[in-house]
């Protein structure tokens, strides 16, 4: 199954930027970054639970917002993409 | 139907910030902002087409990335949210 992870953190603080990097690392173990704070992960049900708990361990629930969306098959019917795909650009230093 | 609009634009330029504001305005006509560049819109099929074309009119496809995801019902099964919901915080000046 495809899940979309979108994560909103204040990147004005170094702690926030560090959390974003750690969230990105966890998500990249399961999929790819499609936008600055949006990741598409391929997981089964058990992996989704693991992903969820790993992410909850990293985020600061008092400050950040984490959203996980299950995107059902067929993806062609549920996902539309326009413009420049920039996933690879995100591995260098994250300036927001 | 619920659609998720996530929009990635370089906000280092004033043109990029203006495009993000205009994208936000369009999306807010149909729903709410749930993260800095992520919006949840309630639309029917015809409204989705209108939303899509309005957004494509605004974005710079050479620089930006726009993703639209259809999120089927029941939402409780397809959407998980954790942490602080900050939708209302985004109406003031967007500092990224």
TrEMBL record, chains A, B:
<keyword id="KW-0255">Endonuclease</keyword>
<feature type="binding site">
    <location>
        <position position="8"/>
    </location>
    <ligand>
        <name>Mg(2+)</name>
    </ligand>
</feature>
<comment type="similarity">
    <text>Belongs to the CRISPR-associated endoribonuclease Cas2 protein family.</text>
</comment>
<keyword id="KW-0460">Magnesium</keyword>
<comment type="subunit">
    <text>Homodimer, forms a heterotetramer with a Cas1 homodimer.</text>
</comment>
<keyword id="KW-0540">Nuclease</keyword>
<dbReference type="GO" id="GO:0043571">
    <property type="term" value="P:maintenance of CRISPR repeat elements"/>
</dbReference>
<dbReference type="InterPro" id="IPR019199">
    <property type="entry name" value="Virulence_VapD/CRISPR_Cas2"/>
</dbReference>
<dbReference type="InterPro" id="IPR021127">
    <property type="entry name" value="CRISPR_associated_Cas2"/>
</dbReference>
<keyword id="KW-0051">Antiviral defense</keyword>
<dbReference type="Pfam" id="PF09827">
    <property type="entry name" value="CRISPR_Cas2"/>
</dbReference>
<dbReference type="GO" id="GO:0004521">
    <property type="term" value="F:RNA endonuclease activity"/>
</dbReference>
<dbReference type="GO" id="GO:0016787">
    <property type="term" value="F:hydrolase activity"/>
</dbReference>
<keyword id="KW-0479">Metal-binding</keyword>
<dbReference type="GO" id="GO:0046872">
    <property type="term" value="F:metal ion binding"/>
</dbReference>
<protein>
    <recommendedName>
        <fullName>CRISPR-associated endoribonuclease Cas2</fullName>
        <ecNumber>3.1.-.-</ecNumber>
    </recommendedName>
</protein>
<dbReference type="GO" id="GO:0051607">
    <property type="term" value="P:defense response to virus"/>
</dbReference>
<comment type="function">
    <text>CRISPR (clustered regularly interspaced short palindromic repeat), is an adaptive immune system that provides protection against mobile genetic elements (viruses, transposable elements and conjugative plasmids). CRISPR clusters contain sequences complementary to antecedent mobile elements and target invading nucleic acids. CRISPR clusters are transcribed and processed into CRISPR RNA (crRNA). Functions as a ssRNA-specific endoribonuclease. Involved in the integration of spacer DNA into the CRISPR cassette.</text>
</comment>
<keyword id="KW-0378">Hydrolase</keyword>
């Amino acid at each position: 199954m495809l899940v979309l992870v979108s994560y909103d953190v204040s990147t004005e603080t170094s702690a926030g930027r560090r959390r974003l990097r750690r969230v990105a690392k966890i998500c990249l173990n399961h999929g790819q970054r499609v936008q600055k704070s949006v990741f598409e992960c391929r997981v089964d049900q058990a992996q989704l639970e693991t992903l969820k708990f790993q992410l909850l361990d990293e985020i600061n629930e008092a400050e950040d917002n984490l959203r996980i969306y299950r995107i059902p098959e067929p993806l062609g019917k549920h996902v539309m993409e326009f413009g420049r795909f920039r996933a690879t650009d995100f591995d260098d230093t994250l300036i927001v």
